[in-house]
Design a protein that fits this description.
six-stranded mixed β-sheet
Length: about 130
């Protein structure tokens, strides 16, 4: 399955979660429900996956944790905040680069309409 096919499934599941729960909860509640739906779809999903950071000859074992890694192809970073800021997009882009992943979805569940809270970050380019 391609990254684009996976992103359609992930976004569809995120919309289902948001439609059922609405805005205003902590990010972990949304991510747990999203994890459940994606696994139910038969996808391989890892949550809070530690990813090492390599710097010169040093390997830092827990440099960062990815909220969800779907099929080892798509990083999902979940937020439940007033607004996404450039630092959140930069953080997701850094995760993509360090993990060698081509596609990331930054999802802010604390919005009235979820499509307004989704940012797709691909190949080093941020789709706004």
């Amino acid at each position: 399955m391609t990254e684009n096919e996976l992103s359609k499934i992930i976004i569809g599941a995120a919309i289902r979660v948001h439609s059922a729960l609405g805005p205003g909860l902590l990010e972990n509640a949304y991510l747990e429900c999203l994890y459940y739906l994606l696994v139910k779809e038969g996808l391989y999903v890892e949550k809070q996956k530690p990813m090492p950071v390599l710097f010169e000859e040093v390997k830092v074992e827990c440099g960062y944790r990815v909220d969800l890694l779907v099929e080892n192809k798509v990083i999902v970073e979940g937020k439940s905040i007033e607004a996404l800021h450039p630092i959140h997009m930069a953080q997701t882009l850094t995760y993509l680069r360090l993990g060698g992943i081509r596609l990331g979805l930054l999802i802010n569940f604390n919005v009235l309409l979820l499509k307004n809270g989704i940012k797709r970050i691909a190949n080093g380019m941020i789709d706004l």
